[in-house]
Please model this.
Amino acid sequence: MILVTGATGNVGAELVRALAGAGQPVRALSRSGRADGLPSGAEATAGDLNRPETVRDALDGVTGLFLMPGYGGQRQVLADARAAGVQRVALLSGKSAGSGDTGNAVAGYLIDAESSVRESGLSWTFLRCTSFMSNALQLADQIRKGDIVRVPFPDAYTTDIDPYDIAQVALRALLSDEFAGRALELTGPEALLPADRVRILGEVLGRDLRAVGLTHEEARADLEARMPKPYVDAFFSFFVDGTLDESVVQPTVADVTGRTPHTFAEWARTHADAF
Ligand SMILES: NC(=O)c1ccc[n+]([C@@H]2O[C@H](COP(=O)([O-])OP(=O)(O)OC[C@H]3O[C@@H](n4cnc5c(N)ncnc54)[C@H](OP(=O)(O)O)[C@@H]3O)[C@@H](O)[C@H]2O)c1
Model:
């Protein structure tokens, strides 16, 4: 049995689908324990990663754990996983974890999550991803309202990855020992600017979408409305000060899965209904 946390999210839902499709028993954990949309054979369960006692029962019979980073209960959840006989953990992480910069709030919580997994005694694989293609869903409201799409960090090239591809790598890391003890740097197949992604979305949707870059002040106000200030500072450090370079394509997804990762156009076609 594989336990997928964050199972109703972008990556978790893809992983539940992939495991069920491969005929693997899978338990899908989220706080809501939502079962709608789950593939047949997958089991929904409710649990809160900030309250480890609510996750304990879900570990029964589990051999592999897909873990979301950054929750308060992570050390206890990992200790309970070890006690329950879990063998492998695949941790969703980010490229910035490789910086070692604990002073950056985003890198810091990812580094802490990686440390807690390393110290757990479980066999582990870290999935150090670049930005997710699904971040483009944050533009959906604007796109429904008009053709001008205002984007933060207009000059930052990033090799965004489809959550589907993260899940494809996670599946392999959870079902074999081949990737044990490895921090895998996962990227998409191309470096794009935010304006490129807006143009591609326009092509897929049959719209003449145009990106306009937010100024630093506008981007800060926009982000601070959605997340705590230390995280906003972290993203400014990454993409304005340039402390994180997500512009380089890595071959890891193809090396692990045997196929090239999805392009942003492929992601956009699959998710066109969301816009
Ligand atoms: N977005 C990026 O560019 C990026 C890049 C690198 C790494 N990451 C990492 O990926 C994570 C997001 O992954 P995602 O996009 O797949 O997730 P997501 O779509 O934001 O969904 C979050 C999932 O976690 C569940 N969840 C939230 N709080 C929980 C809690 N306290 N206990 C148990 N489950 C909880 C949610 O369901 P309920 O609400 O029902 O609990 C949902 O299933 C980020 O937190 C970040 O650490 C993101």
